[in-house]
Amino acid sequence: MHLNQKFKKLLHILAVGSYRNALWASGSAAAVEHSAFLRQQRFDVILDVGANRGQFSLVARHIQPDAKIYAFEPLPTPALTYQSIFEHDNMVKLFDVAVMPAQDKRVMNISRRDDSSSLLPITATQTMQFPGTEAVSQIEVQCAPLSQLLHSEVIAGRILLKIDVQGAELEVLKSAQSLLSSVSIIYVELSLVQFYGGQPLAAEVIQFLAEQGFHIDGIFNATVDYKFQKLLQADFSFIRR
To answer: Under a CB-based contact definition with an 8 Å cutoff, are residues 191 and 216 in contact?
Structure first.
């Protein structure tokens, strides 16, 4: 993100009380770059997979104040921050697990910037394009399918499934396959180059979602390698046909 973009983002954050409070209290910067997408439609339920420190949930709560938010974050430190931000909000529930097709434990590669951590190996391409995201440690995290985690919850109405999981997008979608028929919109960060070892690229995820009855409805927040004029990644929204 260029300096002028960072400055504009900071101004946006400081202009909203809940964003400002979260920044001062916990250092969590609301992901205001998702505001344009979140204003397009109304949602009753938001599934925030890869919630980290609540950056997306903060914006979702501000723009969609009546939506119930279910968040999923396996890393202990970001999960504690998330809980501290939303501890008095009974419309938000956090699951401190990684969403995966099977209930088991897996090794998470921890990035120096924890929002770049992944269940997949962090590649040299990632650290070259995004300095400061190299792996610094590993921890074991609990995993479970989305359908299992939500089996006792009442999930109804217009549902948004947001996914930001650093290369594990297809596994999250497969873990939610039995729920996808109830989902209205999917909003997922996809890459066109491999930042994580074994990462499925955008074309493979797009094909999977097409088979589930979803097509691309919008592209947001594109990251471009301007030296080679190459699109690296972006947030894609998919709508049910």
So the answer is: no
Distance, in Å, from the CA atom of 84 to the CA atom of 77, rounded to the nearest integer, reads 11
Whether the Cβ atoms of residue 51 and residue 98 lie closer than 8 Å to each other:
no
pLDDT tens-digit map of 147-182: 899 988 888 999 999 999 999 999 999 999 999 999
What b/e readout covers 219-234, taking b as 16+ CB neighbours within 10 angstroms? ebeebeeeeeeeebbb
Asked if 64 contacts 85 with a C-beta cutoff of 8 angstroms, the reply is no
Domains and CATH numbers, the chain: 3-240 (3.40.50.150)
**DSSP string covering 65-125:** TT-EEEEE---HHHHHHHHHHHTT-TTEEEE-SEE-SSSEEEEEEEESSGGG-BSSPBPHH
What does the block give as tokens for 197?
A: 């070892």
Beta bridge partners of residue 139, listed in sequence order: 108
Report d(CA 96, CA 90) in Å as an integer.
17
- Mutual angle of helices 55-63 and 17-26, in 10-degree steps: 160
Q: How far apart are CA 75 and CA 78, in angstroms?
A: 6
Q: How many degrees, rounded to 5, is the angle at CA 45 between CA 153 and CA 105?
A: 55
pTM recorded for the entire structure: 0.95
Model pLDDT for residues 139-156, shown as the tens digit of each residue: 999 999 998 999 888 889
For residue 198, give the nearest of 219, 234, 169 by alpha carbon: 169
Separation between Cα atoms, residue 14 and residue 50, nearest integer Å: 24
Residue carrying structure tokens 């990644």: 233
Query: Which residue carries 């873990």 as its tokens?
Result: 175
